[in-house]
Amino acid sequence: MNKVAVITDSIAAISPEMAQEYGIGIVPAHVIMDGKDYPDTEIDMGMLYARLEGKENLPTTSGATTGQFLQAYQEMSQRAEAILVITLTSAYSTTYGAAVQAREMAREKLLKTIIEVVDCRTVAGAQLLIVLQAARAAAQGKSLQEVTEVANDMILRVNDLSMRDTLFYLDKGGLVYEAGSWAEAESKSTFRAILRVDASTEGITKPVARAKTKTQIMNKMVDIAKERVRDKKLYAAIVHTNVPDQAEQLKKMILSQFQCDEFYVAEALGATAVKNGRGLIHFGFYGGD
Length: 289
Fold this sequence. Notes:
- The protein contains eleven helices and 13 strands.
- It has helices spanning 16-22, 45-54, 66-76, 95-109, 124-139, 144-157, 168-172, 180-186, 214-229, 244-255, 270-276, and strands at 2-9, 25-27, 30-33, 36-39, 60-62, 80-87, 114-119, 159-163, 192-196, 206-211, 233-240, 260-267, 281-288.
């Protein structure tokens, strides 16, 4: 039996291979379409993107549920003495609250299992990096306190920058926050925006920069990363919604400017697609030794 198991939600875009390698439990968010509830790990993405293109009768999302987390706790308790749960920012979803509620319920059923729940205050690529480092610490046999400290340290270190084809879906989903004026202006002028959501923004969306084209925005992303990482090695993850060529373009631009020890590229699942539409690129990164 391991000392600690790590659980996260599907917004982190952890691949099945990575989940298996580090024993990470994944609790899926949900997409509601035509009255049906789909775990976003199971929905047909082609069908979903086709629906999103119409911008009418849009699907909606819901966070992972208390019942899902309770089931995950019960399963993980069979192979670990303690569990660390790392959820996406609580400003975006009810997932964190569901994980906490499930922990309270589990105290009566899983008397020997200690459960800690952490709001990572970010999403997607940055969330992936936090979860991965915590899972590695757990795989090294560290205690729950030590693994939690690794996660909390990573939360303060990671940066999240994102761009998308349009702010329409983010605004429609109620997640645009302090970039609301940019979403309104977008309908009157053509520009691309960089948004940020991480510990520095307290887990809410804040505008960073904007430009006319995606290439210009990518250049700005690279420049921002250079300011924050400076001469350190770069650790990065890109999560995108059905734009692999653009994700690869940004990756090449980044690799031309940094010494990079780790770089992950993953396609987002259904709930992220609903909230952002096709064309999202989340760039999560931090500097290390």
